[in-house]
Every structure is written in structure tokens, then in C-alpha cells.
Design brief:
The chain is mainly beta. It has one domain: Lipocalin (Beta Barrel), CATH 2.40.128.20. The chain has no helices and ten strands. The protein is globular and about 40 Å long. It starts with 9 loop residues before the first strand and ends with a strand. InterPro entries: DUF6314. This is DUF6314 family protein.
Length: about 130
């Protein structure tokens, strides 16, 4: 079933694993909230990042989601399209390539995977979202 913008509205828990090609790993857990604002949704993610041998770090991300769904950075720049049926997406962020995959097969749980490659970055990030408010 195709996902529509309103399907994401609400409170979700998330767990993220980031694996760098050089061997470092990080885990992030927290909450993501999609809130209706006019014709779109504001996305705010807050959580805690844990790196081996370091104190936990508070983290936050903000995006804007519009019909499509389409995702924009908080400053209004386009980020990527969300494939409504799940599947691949991409984003070029000079000089790094972001290749993403949305998997909605276990809805209302879903995963987003990003493989990031370039001269500045080389990692794989997998985030699993689980609905909390329904």
C-alpha cells in the first residue's frame, strides 16, 4: 500500500545504527514527531547518540515533509523524495552521494537505510521507526 503524507503524522520511537567503513559504530535512540503545519508536516527528532568509550550525546534533527512525500532540510533546501510504495531514493550533497531505501513492508514499523559514499563520508545508517501514538 502506498504511504501518504498523513500516514507519518504522530509520535514514533526510533533506533538507528551507524556503521562507518573504518569500523566505528554509533547507536542513536529517541523519538521522532511529525506535526501538521499547514499543508505539510514538521519533523523533529530528538535522541541520544552512544559511541563506544564516550559519554552519550544529545542529538536533534529537523526536516519539513510535503506531499509526495518530499523531504526538505529545515532551511528549505530539497533533500529527497520518499517512494510511496517503498524503494530507493537518493541525494547528492557535494561531494558525497547519499543512496537511500525506504522499507514499508512491516508498516506501521518501517526502516530507512542510507549508504553514504564520497571523499568526506563512508558509512551505512539504518533507522527503524515504530509508531507510539496509535
Amino acid at each position: 500500500m502506498a504511504r501518504r503524507l498523513q500516514d507519518f503524522e504522530g509520535v514514533w520511537a526510533f533506533a538507528r545504527r551507524i556503521a562507518h567503513a573504518a569500523g566505528q559504530e554509533a547507536e542513536v535512540t529517541g523519538h521522532a514527531i511529525w506535526t501538521r503545519d499547514g499543508t505539510g508536516l514538521d519533523y523533529v527528532e530528538t535522541g541520544e547518540m552512544r559511541l563506544t568509550g564516550a559519554a552519550p550525546i544529545r542529538v536533534e534533527r529537523r526536516y519539513r515533509w510535503e506531499e509526495g512525500p518530499r523531504v526538505y532540510f529545515a532551511d528549505g533546501r530539497f533533500f529527497h523524495d520518499v517512494p510511496p510504495e517503498g524503494g530507493e531514493t537518493r541525494h547528492w550533497c557535494e561531494p558525497d552521494q547519499y543512496d537511500g531505501t525506504y522499507d514499508f513492508s512491516r508498516w506501521p514499523e518501517f526502516t530507512v537505510t542510507w549508504a553514504v559514499r564520497g571523499p568526506r563520508k563512508d558509512y551505512r545508517m539504518v533507522t527503524t521507526y515504530t509508531r507510539e501514538d496509535r
